[in-house]
Amino acid sequence: MSILTKFLINCLAVAAGAYFIPGIHIRNGIIPLIGVTLVISLLNALLKPLLVILTIPVTILTFGLFLFVINALVILIAGNMLDNFSVDGFWSAMLFSFVIMIVNWIFQGAK
Prior knowledge:
- The protein is 75% helix and 5% strand.
- The chain has helices at residues 3-20, 30-46, 48-54, 56-61, 66-81, 90-108; strands at 24-26, 85-87.
- It has one domain.
- A two-stranded antiparallel sheet has the order 1-2.
- It is mainly α.
- The longest helix is centred in the last third of the chain and has 19 residues, at 90-108.
């Protein structure tokens, strides 16, 4: 699957999360949606691996469930970085990360 296809699937996932979760807000159309997807993708590529390494003991103790907290933190950071994207709280970010994960799982295939 090409990078462009994966990015478009991520855009769809972000749009679905913003539509279904009341605490997630993307304003002003498709351009901010693309920007939000790009920022979340970059944070997942650059910041998330560092956070995962720093929290290995907690992740092991929680049998990997702490990775969901890391995903929510990445979403909250993106919400603080962008003007057209806001997240109302931690639980909204957690649900948003679940929606993104599920949409990606459906469209990219279970592996």
